[in-house]
Amino acid sequence: MSGLYDILGVTKSDSCTTIKKAYLKLARTHHPDKGGDPERFKEILRASEVLTDEKKRRIYDECGIIEGETPQHQGFNPFQGGFPFEININDLFGNMFNSGSNGPLRKGKKPAATVQTINITLEQFYLGHNFDIHINRQSFCQTCNHTGAKSKETCRSCNGRGMICKMVQIGPMAMQTSGPCMDCQGKGERTLEMCDKCSGGYFQDKRTLSVKISPGTRPQETYIFSEVCSDHPSFERPGDVHIIINEDRNDNGFKYFNRSGDRLQHLETTLSLSLSESLIGCVVQIDGHPGYDEGLFVKIPAGSFHSNKYCLTGFGMPIPGNIGKYGDLFITIYVDISPMERTLFATKGRELLAPLFEDKIRTYKCPEESIQTELYLH
Prior knowledge:
Blueprint: H1 4-8, H2 16-30, H3 38-51, H4 54-63, E1 85-88, H5 89-92, E2 114-120, H6 122-127, E3 129-140, E4 149-154, E5 163-170, E6 173-180, E7 189-194, E8 202-213, E9 221-225, E10 241-247, H7 252-256, E11 258-260, E12 266-273, H8 275-280, E13 282-286, E14 296-300, E15 309-312, E16 329-335, H9 339-357
Parallel strand pairs: 1-6, 2-10, 12-16
Antiparallel strand pairs: 3-8, 4-7, 5-6, 9-10, 11-12, 13-14, 15-16
Helix pairs in contact: 2-3
């Protein structure tokens, strides 16, 4: 039987794309549905399956059928009299071994970054905060090029290929197998002396990552430490570490205040007043402000009503890059009227306010009996 390349009319140097095109061209002519010879089409299909599969093609090129070693038969059916049937032991065992014949694995540039989120308090955002993270990592041993061997030799069993091809006769069927060399574990070389500088090609290393958070930093700020993770044989460079700073929502500061503004430079809070405080005005102590441990004292003017919003300039968060400059503090008023205040206002309060506001109240033109007076709070 002709070689697989001859069947498709291609050469060993042709690319996978060229081989696929040759197969499609032949298939149009020799497919049984087009009147072609079924056995001839089987040969074409089998040749395409082997030569367009990278691993199968490599094994065929390295351990292919040699004329004269086995009886020649037509077709690809291994049960018709001893046609050698190729089995790759590496395929059967899921590529447990890094076969030397496959060459070195293609390395990635860098693994995905390791991400760690650190939650900090509002006060730490306000004042700034510094902390260190200590990590243990594995570094490649440069003495042995992270092989773990001080000296090595080429494996004599497989001549450095890492793969061994054998012909196995099972009854009428001859099977050609290719599998990893057991003497070198598929590496193509054997260790003569272990490296005395490391443990298996690595040594332990320690790194300290210093995170410096400036006053006024925004949540979700990411601090990147390049190539500080452990070395990995599958990648050219070690991975990065990303430290993400976020708000600690269990902190009391964030229970009292929210950050706002295009740079999150402002602080917002809600202040609850009684009806008396709302009408007359008062001085209140605002707790939880990160810049005032004893509380921030603010004078609320008389006539501060529900949903009024006041601004206290310069009492917000520090503005990064602008030393001494701060955002603003916004205070939204919430008036909580007690039953006692409501009764007092409806009696004595009305009598006192009537002379001041009676001429400002809207008038009506309707019989007294038409006015609905049975209102209740809902």
